[in-house]
Design a protein that fits this description.
Elements (H helix, E strand, L loop, with lengths): L21 E4 L8 E3 L5 E3 L2 E7 L9 E5 L24 E2 L4 E2 L4 E5 L31 H14 L5 E7 L1 H12 L4 E7 L7 H15 L16 H15 L2 H7 L20 H16 L2 H13 L9 H5 L6 E7 L7 H13 L3 E7 L7 H4 L1 H24 L1
Parallel strand pairs: 5-8, 5-9, 6-7, 9-10, 10-11, 11-12
Antiparallel strand pairs: 1-4, 2-3, 4-8
Helix pairs in contact: 1-2, 3-4, 3-7, 4-6
Length: 396
């Protein structure tokens, strides 16, 4: 077995970096040092932050690439280098659904993110200043391409599986679309072939809120005050869309905060739901870069499987995986269940094997982070089956 770790100097502008974070520098395209983006932009010296678990097999055939949603770091699970629980702790580890005694698992911070990978907060080598809005237009396909190049830089040419939820589910689809035949199994959770008008509208409002904060300063705020108020309000709107009304009612109803915690302002925090939004949004706004928020948000709006074939079904027909797992949640208002059904049916029409799971929970879009008892068995069964299928192949 091989341990694969490639490190580089920790960038001074990076946040969310731990002892378990490693960095890989991506090869350029077309014989140049530049990473070429889908909409024509170019980036020099692209760096991707990642964490890994397990060991790569001698045949390099047991690698799983995990793409994150918009906001997490690459710290998906604890490891010997960082024992802090990760954002998908119940899913990744020894004898867990994504079993690191069987698989070599890599989770990357997306291109355009702000937790170590090249993004708007990264220093532009040409100017010595943060890219800001000089960062080129970003797409989900670029995020997937960066993941692919990162795997190549680590010596991995073929994946056992690509996995993602939310934006990560889009990135996983984009990976399978762009690199057919280079991944055996696809897992897409709470994602879609393309965003619906409602979802685009919500994200558009979030971006407008950030850009209307005077401190945003047309994206040039790195030497001064950050657009905290804009990020705070945008995140609150996001939190409302990540969960479902039934959960808010069950969890908070009309409960008031204790008198000692109330704001003196006439319109200050009085209800527990207000307190929850304030607390969680403030944590997010403190550590997440506003420009990364804008770029990643827009990338999700732009993604459309139909761009890869003229229609959604034609695009899905280009995926050449052995088996696909599509998971949706009935209470998800950002990516409603009919969108996962569209993916499953489109893949089936193309002759692909599909496992489709419709999960009932009132936790909404973020259910994959919360509902261990629902999601863990689904992924465990899928990956056990994937190992069985490959074992049967070796016997034929």
């Amino acid at each position: 077995m091989l341990n694969v770790v490639q490190t580089a100097k920790i960038p001074k502008e990076a946040t969310g970096i731990t002892a378990a974070t490693h960095f890989v520098h991506l090869p350029g395209d077309y014989g140049t040092a530049d990473f070429v983006l889908r909409r024509g932009g170019r980036l020099a010296n692209v760096r991707i932050a990642y964490e890994s678990w397990g060991e790569l097999s001698l045949n390099k055939d047991n690698a799983i690439l995990v793409f994150t949603g918009m906001s997490p770091t690459a710290h998906a699970a604890a490891s010997a280098l960082d024992a802090t629980p990760g954002w998908w702790e119940y899913m990744i580890g020894p004898n867990k659904p994504i079993d690191t005694t069987q698989f070599f698992v890599v989770c990357i911070n997306s291109l355009g993110g702000c937790f170590g990978s090249t993004g708007p907060n990264t220093l532009n080598p040409t100017t010595g200043q943060a890219y800001g809005l000089q960062f080129p237009e970003l797409t989900v396909e670029d995020i997937a391409k960066a993941g692919h190049h990162a795997m190549q830089a680590l010596g991995i040419d073929h994946l056992h599986a690509v996995v993602g939820a939310s934006m990560g589910g889009l990135s996983s689809l984009a990976y399978a679309l762009q690199y057919p035949g280079e991944v055996d199994y696809l897992v897409s959770i709470s994602a879609a072939a393309r965003a619906l008008p409602f979802t685009i509208a919500v994200r558009s409002l979030q971006r407008e809120i950030v850009r209307n904060d005077p401190a945003w300063n047309n994206g040039d705020y790195y030497a001064g005050e950050k657009p905290q108020q804009g990020m705070l309000t945008a995140r609150k709107l996001g939190l409302l869309s990540y969960r479902a009304a039934d959960e808010w009612r069950e969890r908070f109803n009309r409960a008031r905060v204790p008198a000692e915690r109330r704001n003196e302002s006439l319109f200050g925090v009085e209800f527990e739901i207000e307190s929850y939004l304030e607390h969680n949004a403030r944590k997010f706004a403190h550590h997440f870069d506003a420009n990364s928020y804008l770029y990643l948000s827009r990338a999700m709006d732009l993604f459309d499987v139909a761009d890869h074939g003229g229609s959604v079904n034609a695009g899905l027909a280009k995926i050449h995986t052995r088996r696909n797992l599509i998971v949706g949640v009935e209470s998800d208002i950002l990516f409603p269940i009919e969108q996962q059904l569209e993916l499953a049916e489109g893949l089936k029409k193309a002759g692909h094997a599909v496992d489709f799971h419709y999960l009932s929970t009132h936790h909404g879009h973020d259910s994959f982070l919360i509902d261990k008892d629902l999601f863990a068995p689904v992924l465990r069964e899928f990956f056990i089956r994937s190992l069985d299928e490959k074992l049967n192949d070796s016997r034929d």
